[in-house]
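Comment thread on ticket #2218

A.B. wrote:
> Attaching the input chain for the structure job we discussed in standup.
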Amino acid sequence: MSQTTLERPAPAAEPAHAARPKRRLGGGTLLFIYTWLVILWLIVPIFVMIAFSFNDTKGRYNQEWQGFTFKWYGKIFEIEDLTKALWTSLIIAVISSLLSGALGTGIGYALGRYRFRGSGTLNLIMFATISSPELIMGASLLSLFVSLALGLGAVTITIAHVMFSISFVATIVRARVVTLDRSIEEAAADLGASAWTTFWKVTFPIILPAVFSGVLLAFALSIDDFVVTNFTAGSVTTFPLWIWGSTRVGLPPQVNVMGTLIFAVGVLIAVITNIRSRSGKRG
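C.D. wrote:
> Ran it. Output below, let me know if you need it in another format.
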């Protein structure tokens, strides 16, 4: 009996240019596009400010590009009142950020480490301070200063800025303290370190990046605050108040120059902090 061999048909050769599946916009891609659109929306005004700091405008600030020049950077301190307002804002921001950093670090450490009577109320007050409108904060502080017969000026501005900045610093520090590894502190205590020594030699260096971030945030909130400052300034003029008062007649180019330099310093600090943080992790 002969055996019949069944031959299978050879598979068809695939075309040289096979059709590739079409890419569809997934949730991740849409989120990526949305994120960059938001970032672009936020940084466009900053780029406009930087560009017009080089505008060769004739007179007060206007929206027409009239040429490129560096001359305004050489005349940055030409307007005496504007220079005084800038230095006032910088001094108040430095003092208020340091005070907020010291007080907020203590509050954040206590809330993150211990459970005590009134901690829930303190948490509620902190988040109420963060979420409350600046109009309410400014009006309430003005009523407090008037009732205490405190003359409005640089001191009341500093107190007001410390009041609303403490909550931000405390929140940042508390978040870092909650994730702190307690075994490191326990090891230091086992080796004979006191509670004070353990805090300064072990705990504080670990939470220092969070403290530094809180201080920088307090500085940024202070230097550009307008609403609360307007309620508590009295006859003192800060940088935002001077800009608001000058918008009626037109802003001089020096405002854009100062804003550009402040933004550049902030970016430089952020870059240096990021580089040091990465080098510390690698080491």
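A.B. wrote:
> Thanks. Noting for the ticket: DSSP finds eleven helices and no strands in the chain.
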